[in-house]
Amino acid sequence: MSTRLSFPAVIEVVVEIPAGSRNKYEYDEEAKVIRLDRVLSSAVFYNFDYGFIEGTRADDGDHTDAMLLIDEPTFPGCHVWARPVGVAVGPDGALYFTSDSAINGLFRLRRVQ
């Protein structure tokens, strides 16, 4: 018997790290700003916009992580309406894969190549 997760049709993703960036940003809860945490090594960068789902908390108390599949990188602090297309659960909790709501036809993660 398989269990299906139910997702809302649209969620709000706050971008912390844009695609192609080597800068690792973190949201500072107290100051309510995004801060530069560190610069990653030269061979490492983010393939997609990475951030969190606004108004959520993961088991570790941090915001729930989200990877945003979008045509062009945004910027740290950008709020994007997105559609959930999949989830992966790892040792750090769940990572939700989302698609910019303007990308037509992407409703399931298996369609990403």
Name given to the CATH architecture: Alpha-Beta Complex
CATH topology: Inorganic Pyrophosphatase
Low-confidence stretches: none
Structural class: mainly beta
DSSP strand content: 35-45%
Distance linking N and C termini: 28 Å
Share of helical residues: under 10%
Please provide the ordered H/E string of secondary-structure elements.
EEEEEEE
Radius of gyration: 14 Å
Shape: globular
Main CATH class: Alpha Beta
Mean pLDDT: 80
User: How many DSSP E strands?
Assistant: 7
Order of strands, widest sheet: 1-4-5-7-6
Fourth-level CATH superfamily: Inorganic pyrophosphatase
The largest β sheet comes out as: 5 strands, mixed, barrel
Domain tally: 1
Helical stretch tally: 0
Give a quick set of tags describing it.
two-stranded antiparallel sheet, 44% strand, Inorganic Pyrophosphatase, mainly beta, single chain, five-stranded mixed barrel, 113 residues, 7 strands
Task: Please characterize this protein's 3D structure.
With 113 residues, the chain is mostly beta strands. It has a single domain (11-111), classed as Alpha-Beta Complex (Inorganic Pyrophosphatase), CATH 3.90.80.10. 0% of the residues lie in helices and 44% in strands. The protein contains no helices and seven strands. The protein has strands at residues 11-17, 23-28, 33-39, 49-53, 65-69, 79-90, 93-100. The strands form two sheets. It has a five-stranded mixed barrel with strand order 1-4-5-7-6. A two-stranded antiparallel sheet has the order 2-3. A hairpin with a 4-residue loop joins strand 2 and strand 3 (33-39). The radius of gyration is 14 Å and the shape is globular. The model has no long low-confidence stretch (mean pLDDT 80).
